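#dry-run=false #mode=assembly
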Amino acid sequence: MYIHDEFDRTFLKERVAEFRDQVARRLSGELTEEEFKMLRLMNGVYLQLHAYMLRVCIPYGTLASKQLRALARVARRYDKGYGHFTTRQNIQFNWIKLAELPDAMAELAEVGIHGIQTSGNCIRNTTTDAFAGAAPDEIEDPRLYAEVIRQWSTLHPEFTYLPRKFKIAISAATHDRAAIRVHDVGLRLHKKDGRTGFEVMVGGGLGRTPYIGQTIREFLPKEDLLTYLEAILRTYNLGGRRDNIYKARIKILVHDLGAEAFGKLVEEEWAKIKDGALKLDEAGLAAIRAHFHTPDLPALPEKPAVLADALKDPAFARWHAQSVTAHKVPGHAIVTLSLKPVGGPPGDCTADQMDAIADLADAYSHGEVRVAHEQNLVFPHVRQQDLPALWGKLEALGVATPNVGLVTDIISCPGLDYCALANTRSIPIAQQITERFADPERIADIGLLHVNISGCINACGHHHVGHIGILGVEKKDQEFFQITLGGKGNAKARLGELIGPAIPETEVVDVVERLVDTYLSLRTGPGETFIAAVERLGVEPFKDSAYAPR
Amino acid sequence: MPLVKNGAPAADVYVRVADGDALPDAPVIVSADRLLAEAHALAARGGALGVAWPNDRDVAELVPHLPQLSLVALVFPKFRDGRAFSQARLLRERYGYTGELRATGNVLRDQLLMMVRSGFDALEVEKPADAAAFGKALASYSVFYQPTGDGRRPVAALRRARVAAEAAS
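#status=ok
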C-alpha cells in the first residue's frame, strides 16, 4: 500500500482546515448554499434525502487495516454504525451532521484517507483493479500509475472546475476488473516491443447517454501519461459543453466531434506539451514506487494438504469455487469477501464487521484489504494453507456467502432509500432477488451472472452493463422497472438491450427468475454462461418467456 | 469591486470602454472584437491597452496582439465555469505573456489560489470580505502536487531534492 509522507500528511491537514473554515463560513451565511455546494462536493459531501452524506475515497481500492478501523470509528461515532461501499472504490456514510463533518474528516486524515474529489466537476479518484499487485494476469502493478494520477489531479488548478465530473480507471491485466471502457478515460497498461505503455480510451460512461469508450491511442509510452492526460483535460475543459448539464460529459464532446477528430485535437495539444515539466522519468516513477509497501511473499506449495482436505467439505468447496482466485505467488490466493448476504443491502458493511475484517486482514492478508468495483472486499495476499481457518471466521462474520460472480452478487446503487436523485428504490429489489435465489447449489448451477440495479437514469448501479440490468423509472408516481439484457462491463464492453415495457416492483423478481429459467433450458450445457447464451441466441427467446405469462 | 494585484489591494486605473465609444486619455480595456478590428489604431494610440477576452474564444487569436497589450482580462461568468483557468495557463506558459492577467467576473475566495497558480496576477474579487482574506486564502496550502507556471515547487521536485540532499550528506 502507499505510505504517506510528511508532504501528503501536511496537505491533508491543510485540506481539513480549509473545509472547516468553509463550513464555518457557510454556517455564518458568508457562503451561499450555491457557492458552498461545489466546495463541499469536492470534499465528498452530498446533501441527500435525509441527511448529509460523506463519500470517502479508498485510493485505488487499497486499505490498510488501520484505515479500515478508522472507517469503523467514523461509522460508529458519526453515523449509524455502518457504511456503504460503492462501484468506484469509495465508501459512503449516510447520516453525518454538517457541523461534525470536519471532525470526521480530521480523524480520517490521521490515517491518510479523505473525501477529496470523490464528487464535483473535477478529476475524481482514479480507480483500478481490486486484485492489483496480486493477480497473475497483470503485467505490472497499476496502482503506481493510479497514485501518479492522484498526485497530478489533486487540486489541479486548471482542472477543478470542469464542465462535468471526470473519471479515470486503469487496468494492467488481461481481465479488465476496473470497467475501464465505461470511464471518461480508460487506461489499459500493456507492452509493445518491450516497452510499457497505455492504450488510451476516451468518452465512455453510463448515465442517461451511455457510451463505450473509444480508443484514441493504441500505445502511449508510460512516461507520457501525465502530459497526455493534461492534453485530454485541456481539450475537454475548453471545448466541453457547459450550457446543459446532461450534455457536459466528455463522452458528448467525443461523440459530437467523432473519436478520431477528438483524438486529433488531443494529439495537437499534446505535441506542444509532451516534453514539458509533467513528463515522467524512471527516477520520478521510482520515487513514487518507493512509497508503496508490497509484501514479500515466499513461494509455497500449491494446494497444501489442509486445503485439499477442506475441499472435501461441499460448503467450503462452494465458497472456494466462488471467492478464491489464483495469486501470482505459488501457494497464495486472493480471497473475495461477499458483501451481498441474502436479504442484505449490497455493499453495506457494519462498523463491527469492519473492525473484525481489519483484524483478519492483519492475521491473514498482510494487513491489507481491497475494495472491489463489484462492492465486495478483498484480501489480496492469503496463504492457501490458511484458507480453511479463514473461511470459518468469514462465515461467522457473514461475509462468506458463496455467491461472488453469481446471480446474487448484485451491483446496486443506494436508490430512493437514501439518494436525492433516485426515482425508485433499489435495495428492496436486490433483497428480493437474493432471497429468491438463496439456495447456494442453485446459484452455483446457474453460474456466472451479473445483475445490476440502478434506481434512476444516472446509472450508478451500472445497469447498462449488467448481464441483466434493472433500471428504476417513475410512471404515474409509481415505481416501475425496465429490464435490459446482454450488457457487459469488461474489455468487450457492450450496452444491454431493453427487452420490453417497464414492470411494477412486484414483478421484477419473477421476470429475473424467468430469464434465468429460460437460460437454463436453452444453454448448451453448464459450460455456456448466461451471457454467452444471450449472445448466441439474441434477446428474442428471453423476451418472449420473460413476459409470457402476462 | 475590489482589485487585488500582486497580492495587495490596488486602485484600478483602467477604464472599460464600450464598442463605438470614444477612447479617453487613460488606460483602457476594450472588447475582443474591437481589439481585432481596430488593432492598428489602438496600437498607434500609445498608452496602456487592455482587452477583455471571452472564455469561449481561443487565446491563440490574441497572440499577434500581445506585444501591444498591457492587460488581458479573462472572465469567469460563474465561478464554476473554469475555462479561463486553461486560457490563463496558455497565455502565460505557452505564449509567454508577461503583462497584467486579470481575473474578472464571479471571482470568489475559494478559487483565488487556483487562479494565482494558473497565472493570474490581478483579481477583481467580487466580495470585499474575500478580497480582505486574500492573503489567508493564498496561505491555505503549502503543498502542491503539480507544476504550473507559477514557480511553486511541486511535491515531486521537493522529494527529489531531499533524496539528493540525503545522498550528498
